[in-house]
């Protein structure tokens, strides 16, 4: 929690309002998560991590937030406490893109996102992307962030 008037890495402010980081962390603090790795050799790996004690299976989809193009999609089955590479997405290091990610794990739906590219990013573009991130599973009101 922030002590006013400082800025820190806290995810709630002095008045107990949730910061944007709260909503992002809430989504990825799940036993089974699909995530995108940093670019290497012109590709980003897509990995499912199962930090639970049970095997997991489901369906996943990764798509470009601007074009809507599906970049990687399929079914997976991962053993307990293991990571499994699902595939790779070709990228340009100079590109700036938002990947949206949804998956199911043993019948429950989840979501995540990955911001690809080197800063700086356009604030106007990020505000557009923020609405798309907020609209995913376990959503939040993007307009109220920072009030």
In short:
The chain is mainly beta and 147 residues long.
What can you tell me about this protein's structure?
The structure is a single chain. The protein is globular and about 40 Å long. Helix content is 14%, strand content 39%. Strands 4-3-6-7 form a four-stranded antiparallel sheet. The protein has a three-stranded antiparallel sheet with strand order 1-2-5, with no helix packed on it. It is mainly beta and 147 residues long. The protein has a single domain (20-142), classed as Immunoglobulins (Immunoglobulin-like), CATH 2.60.40.10.
Topology:
Blueprint: H1 20-28, E1 32-36, E2 43-50, E3 56-64, E4 70-78, E5 82-90, E6 97-105, E7 108-116, H2 123-134
Antiparallel strand pairs: 1-2, 2-5, 3-4, 3-6, 6-7
């Amino acid at each position: 929690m922030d002590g006013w008037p400082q800025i820190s890495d806290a995810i709630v402010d002095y008045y107990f309002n949730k910061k944007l980081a709260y909503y992002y962390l809430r989504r990825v603090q799940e036993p089974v998560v699909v995530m995108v790795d940093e670019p290497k050799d012109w590709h980003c790996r897509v990995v499912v991590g199962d930090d639970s004690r049970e095997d997991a299976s489901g369906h996943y989809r990764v798509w470009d937030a601007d074009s809507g193009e599906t970049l990687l999609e399929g079914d997976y089955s991962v053993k307990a406490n293991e990571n499994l590479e699902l595939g790779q997405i070709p990228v340009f290091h100079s590109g700036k893109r938002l990947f949206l990610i949804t998956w199911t794990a043993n019948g429950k739906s989840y979501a995540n996102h990955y911001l690809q590219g080197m800063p700086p990013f356009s604030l106007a573009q990020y505000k557009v992307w923020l609405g798309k991130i907020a609209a995913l599973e376990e959503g939040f009101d993007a307009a109220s962030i920072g009030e």
